[in-house]
C-alpha cells in the first residue's frame, strides 16, 4: 500500500534512540523527509546518518523541548534546511523512574509533566500555523498504556501520559475542519533497546544466559513483566507502521483517536 508520504516533512522528537528512532526509520522507509531529534547531537546525527545510508532522507537537530527558545531555534533550522513541519510525532518524554507513593515528590510531577505534556503542547502550538495555512497536517502524540492502566509505581508518568490523551482529544476538535488530524498512540510492552537490556538482566537472574536467543528470553521473562494476551512483546516496526498510516493521507478521517499497541493487555470490560 502506497501511503503517499514521499517528500512529507516529519519531525519525530526523542528519535535519537529507542522507539523514536524506530519511528523515524519507518517514516523514512515510506519516503518522508525525517527530522531526527535528540538532546545528544552525536546520537542524533548517528541515527540520521543510518537513515541516509539506507537510502532515506534525514536531517538531525538537537534541543531541549522544555525551553521555548530552543524549540524556536530548532524549527527555524528545520525550515531553512527542508521546510515547514507537516507531520509531528511527539515521542520525547519519559520519567525519572523509581518513585512510588511513599517517595514521589511534587517537583518530580512538575518535571515529568513539563517533559511530556508541555513539550508536546509547545511543539504542536509552534507547528500548527503553517499546517493551518496549508490546510494539511498530522500530529501524533505518543502516550503509554500506563496512561490507561496505571501501575502502582511512577505515578507522575502515568498521570502525564493520561493528560496527553485529553490534550490530543481537545486539539483534534479544534483543528478538525482545517485538514489536520491529531491522534494518540499508546504503546504497551515494546522491544526497544531499554527493554532488551531489562529482559536479559532478568534472564540472568533466572539462570538463563543473557545471550540466549531472544525468543527463549522473551518466553521466560515476559510473564514477569506483563500479561500480554498475544504472548510476545511488540516490535519497533509495528509501532512505526501504525504511525506511518496515521500520518498518511489515507487516515484523513481518523482524528481524536487513541490507538493502543499493547497486544491486548488493556481489559475491554
Kindly, what is the distance between the CA atoms of the first and last residues, rounded to a whole number of angstroms?
34 Å
> Helical percent range?
40-55%
Q: What is the CATH domain class of the largest domain? A: Alpha Beta
**CATH architect. name of the largest domain:** 3-Layer(aba) Sandwich
Pick out the low-confidence regions: none
**Fourth CATH level, the homologous superfamily of the largest domain:** NAD(P)-binding Rossmann-like Domain
Count of alpha/pi helices: 8
The number of domains is 2
Structural class of the secondary elements?
Answer: alpha/beta
The total beta strand count reads 7
Give the SSE string: EHEHEHEHEHEHHHE
Kindly report the average pLDDT value. 95
Amount of beta strand: 5-15%
CATH topology-level fold name of the largest domain: Rossmann fold
Amino acid at each position: 500500500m502506497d501511503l503517499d508520504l514521499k517528500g512529507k516533512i516529519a519531525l519525530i522528537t526523542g528519535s535519537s534512540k529507542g522507539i523514536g528512532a524506530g519511528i523515524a526509520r519507518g517514516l523514512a522507509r515510506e519516503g518522508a523527509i525525517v527530522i531526527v531529534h535528540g538532546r545528544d547531537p552525536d546520537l542524533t546525527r548517528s541515527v540520521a546518518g543510518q537513515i541516509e545510508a539506507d537510502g532515506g532522507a534525514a536531517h538531525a537537530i538537537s534541543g531541549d523541548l522544555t525551553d521555548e527558545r530552543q524549540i524556536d531555534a530548532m524549527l527555524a533550522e528545520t525550515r531553512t534546511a527542508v521546510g515547514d513541519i507537516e507531520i509531528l510525532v511527539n515521542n520525547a518524554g519519559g520519567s525519572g523512574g523509581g518513585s512510588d507513593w511513599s517517595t514521589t515528590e511534587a517537583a518530580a510531577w512538575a518535571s515529568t509533566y513539563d517533559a511530556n505534556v508541555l513539550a508536546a503542547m509547545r511543539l504542536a502550538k509552534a507547528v500548527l500555523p503553517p499546517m493551518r495555512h496549508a490546510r494539511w497536517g498530522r500530529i501524533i502524540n505518543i502516550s503509554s498504556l500506563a496512561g490507561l492502566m496505571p501501575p502502582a509505581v511512577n505515578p507522575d508518568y502515568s498521570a502525564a501520559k493520561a493528560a496527553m490523551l485529553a490534550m490530543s482529544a481537545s486539539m483534534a476538535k479544534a483543528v478538525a475542519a482545517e485538514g489536520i488530524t491529531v491522534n494518540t498512540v499508546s504503546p504497551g510492552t515494546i522491544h526497544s533497546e531499554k527493554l532488551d537490556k531489562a529482559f536479559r538482566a532478568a534472564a540472568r537472574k533466572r539462570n538463563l544466559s543473557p545471550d540466549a536467543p531472544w525468543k527463549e528470553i522473551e518466553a521466560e521473562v515476559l510473564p514477569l513483566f506483563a500479561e500480554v494476551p498475544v504472548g510476545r512483546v511488540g516490535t519497533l516496526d509495528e509501532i512505526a507502521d501504525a504511525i506511518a498510516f496515521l500520518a498518511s493521507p489515507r487516515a484523513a478521517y481518523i482524528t481524536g483517536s487513541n490507538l493502543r499497541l499493547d497486544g491486548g493487555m488493556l481489559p475491554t470490560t
